[in-house]
Amino acid sequence: MNIEFLYPLVSEAIRRAETLDDLRAPGARAAYLEVSLLEEKVAEVLPASDPEGALARRGAVRAAFAAGEFARAQQLIERFSAELGDDAELRGELRGLGEQAECAMARQFPHVAAKPGIPAIRRLADTLSRQGAPFPIS
Amino acid sequence: MRLDLMQLRTMHPLLAAATAAEYAHRAAVGLGRHRHEPGVSLATLIENEAGDASLHWVRAAAGDLLQLDRLRITEDAAEAVALALVHVALGWVVRRRLQRGEAADWLLKDPLARLVALEVSGVDEREDPHRLRKKLKQVQRATVARRKAACVVELMAPRAALAVT
Q: How does pLDDT run across A105-132, given as a tens digit for each residue?
């Protein structure tokens, strides 16, 4: 896939996701996941050293958070950061997106954020998701 | 300066045909809502230089207004006008839309292949005389491009102001 093919799709997907988000429509999260997947495709085409490649990496992470796909967003941050080499700026921006998402979650669920804490809940959710069952299996 | 909103796809080949058509339609509804007719004069202010343009579109059906969100119409109509204006006046071409959080709406390239981050703001009538300055300040936070621009489009007048840094 090339940029000429991907960019029209990305633009349309962003527009659709933001429209659904504004309407608080139920499809907004799925639409943001599509944005994240398309941005990831763009990131495969453009290197991180290209401003548009950096933009795509931020976009893939940002949209994954907007989709509520926290595990995917964290994986993308780790993967993109690993390929960055000395680019501390983009690494910081990607980490910053994770921190922003964390803060937004804490504002949304202040009691959970106070105790046991968002990271603890996320670890539990990851465990449950990996084991494929609704209750912890020891 | 003639701004044909039906030619957005030709101006910006990386806009999907359906997206360009939708922007043109929203602009038709938005401008029609203010009883403007195709060919209406658009007062422009591009980097502090006053000018004049004419806006052209195909009229939308009267019932279309009822199906669309008022704010969305204004925003999309403003984007259609802004994208036509920056192409015709400055030769800029759309690369892609930017997500919220990038401090701009669009990434474009100028004729020297330099990236430009563009923030577009649409209003029905002027409420805040400092809106352009505020939008220009907002777009300074965009990191994707060194050149930044803001465009405020007012549908009632109609008028468009563009500032570039």
A: 888 888 888 888 887 887 887 787 778 7
Are A94 and A63 in contact by the 8 Å Cβ rule? The answer is no
Contact B58, B28 (CB under 8 A): yes
* Residues of A contacting chain B (CB within 8 angstroms): 4, 7-12, 14-15, 18-19, 22-23, 35, 51-52, 54-55, 58-59, 62-63, 93
Residue B122 in tokens: 């649409």
| Contact between residue B41 and residue B52 where contact means Cβ atoms under 8 Å apart | yes
pTM of the model: 0.90
Gap between the Cα atoms of B161 and B50, Å rounded: 9
pLDDT digits (tens, 9 = 90+) for B105-138: 999 999 999 999 999 999 998 778 899 999 999 9
Cα(B59)–Cα(A8) distance, rounded to whole angstroms? 26
Element holding B154 (H helix, E strand): strand B147-154
Subunit contact A11:B14, Cβ cutoff 8 A = yes
Residues of chain A with C-beta less than 8 angstroms from the C-beta of B102: 55, 58-59
Contact indicator for B13, B93 with CB cutoff of 8 Å? yes
Q: Could you give the ipTM of this predicted complex?
A: 0.91
Q: Six-digit token pair at A84? A: 């960055």
Residue B66, number of CB atoms within 10 A of its CB: 7
Nearest to A7 among B14, B18, B115 (CB): B14
